[in-house]
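Narrative summary of target 7.
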Amino acid sequence: MWKLPTKYILLAILACLLWSTAFVSVKIGLQYAKPFGFAGIRFMISGLILLPFTGGILRYFGIIRANFQRILILALIQTFIAYAFFYFGMTLVPGALAAIVIGASPLIFAVVAHVMMHDDKITLPKMVSMLIGFTGVAIIGVSRRPWQSAGLTEFIGIFILLAGSTSGAIGNVLVSKDGIRIPPLVLNSAQLFLGGLMLFIISLILEGSPVKAYPLEYYIALIYLSILSAVAFSIWFYLLKKPGVKVSSLNLWKFIIPVLGAVIAWIVLPDEKPEISAIIGMVFVALSILSFNLCNMVSKNCD
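Modeled conformation, tokenized:
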């Protein structure tokens, strides 16, 4: 039987579908802008997009003032650190490869939840699913030929992306532990804006001023990514705060991201094409979530 209500599953799939389209837009934006500046502007806009839906300015700032330390820590971990690594890693690896590596993040989320939450332990079905997924990531990693100079750059990029996923996993646990204390829209809006502000400040120090004219393609990618983050993260925070929703089980749905993300990258980006090793790795990663959810359909002991 399914552990999540159908409406939660559909919302999780919607968020993952949105995230799967991000890799192409990020690669487009990075053609014209530096990674930290691009990310910082994106997330500040995302936070502002949500502001009108948070119940009023006075309520919004009142909640932030009462919970500022929690929100600041989440912004640091969930947006600043996680996406600093993500954007920097994206400059080192192709978009399709990034989609596959980030798609393996549920494995990291399960480990982090196991360590940080007493009621979200790694069961045998989860362990089997994780091993299948790690096999896929290993195939992908070795296929990049890390013993060669170009392959080494991509190999380093893979580890940077995985480090960003670890930071994001910790952020998910913090949101889940918070329960219903901070409304999801307020929490997401504030942490996105503050995390984006941190990234933007770092970009001014490391990358210089981003003020310049960009082509229309850049602005389309930026606005799309800003809206995507506002919607997808709000859905995810809403689900993480629901009673009985476990971080590890919810994040297993993110295994659909690499399949769609890689395919979209291969279709849209002219310099990317499918490789047999990437496809094999993708199959293993996709089998991870399939095996776990098949277990959930026939057993009550998978979670």
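Residues 6-298 form one domain.
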